Amino acid sequence: MTSLAIETHGLGKRFGARAALESIDLEVPRGTAFGFLGRNGAGKTTLVRLLLGLAEPTSGTMRLLGHTLPDERSQALARVGAIVEEPRFHPHLTGRENLLVHAAARDKHAAGRIPDALKRVGLAARADDVVKGYSLGMRQRLGIARCLLCDPELLILDEPVNGLDPAGILEFRHLVRSLVDEGRTVLLSSHLLDEVEKTCDAAAIVDNGRVVAQGTIEALTAMSDERTIDIVAAPAVKAATVLAAVPVIERAVEHEGGIRATLARNAPRDADVVTVLLRRLLAEDISVERVIPVRRSLEDQFLSMTTRLENA
Q1: Cα(39)–Cα(306) distance, rounded to whole angstroms?
Q2: Cis ω for the linkage preceding 235 (within 30 of 0)
Q3: C-alpha distances in angstroms, 104 versus 20, 144, 155, 248?
Q4: Neighbours of 88 (CB within 10 A)
Q5: Residue ranges in the chain modelled with pLDDT below 70
Q6: Residue closest to 81 by CA, chosen among 210, 225, 179
Q7: pLDDT of the residue at 116
Q8: Where are the alpha helices (DSSP H) in the chain?
Q9: Residue 249's pLDDT is what?
Q10: b or e along 234-272 (b: 16 or more beta carbons within 10 Å of the residue's beta carbon)?
Q11: Can you tell me the distance from the alpha carbon of 206 to that of 214, in angstroms, rounded to the nearest whole number?
């Protein structure tokens, strides 16, 4: 059995002269939560549709759970649960009835999984209400319950937290991690970078139809060599001016009630830098409350990479 749940090489999809995806090389390890990140229109949903056989690629190859697509599509998708954009249901049927309709098209054990699936997504108490009375967030959760009916090895979820309130998003995060703990793989397509950073083990960043970075969350956030320090000092304007004149500082600007100092690329990578900054500030009779190294988030890295590509 291959160690990869999803594997693509040179995958491309064109709509006339427009390339929605171009030469996508993607490797999603089994037993992980993997984020596929990009702005709206970056090509995320197109990739999901290709993996599910809802569209044909114009170039490249795909493998899903060790099966080659499209030749072995039925074998590959037998253990795949998916949400593509907003999940659709029969509005006049209850949540439970909708799942029974779907279960009839799955394996003989699917109907027996309905009670547990409803419980896992927090819909057990509303299972016998008609779906037309469900909120968008409830329909999203029912969509995830539907994914669970095939006892999936792989879940492919396209913008799954749309419509969820903060409590629902937290519950979804816990659900994804519990699925991964069971050995399942979750591909999470999203533009919500903060949520992917909190939920996923690894991610790929796509921009204008191309993967521009791929790796663990830790590796992606560490890709930039830019180092910044937040300093709370008074008076802030004077502190920013003093710091901007220090040779190891590339720039210093007021930021959220303090000063954010960006270190020069050749600045030493040790505590001596902080010591130099503190001495300079104290020598100018500036009061320093705290000094905090800034950890770059996935959002910082994403914005840095996509902005750089736009300006290239």
Answers
A1: 10
A2: yes
A3: 35, 17, 20, 67
A4: 11
A5: 1, 222-226, 269-271, 295-312
A6: 179
A7: 96
A8: 44-51, 73-77, 95-103, 114-120, 136-147, 166-181, 193-199, 217-221, 236-244, 272-283, 298-311
A9: 87
A10: eebeebbebbeebeebbebeeeeebbbbbbeeebeeeee
A11: 9
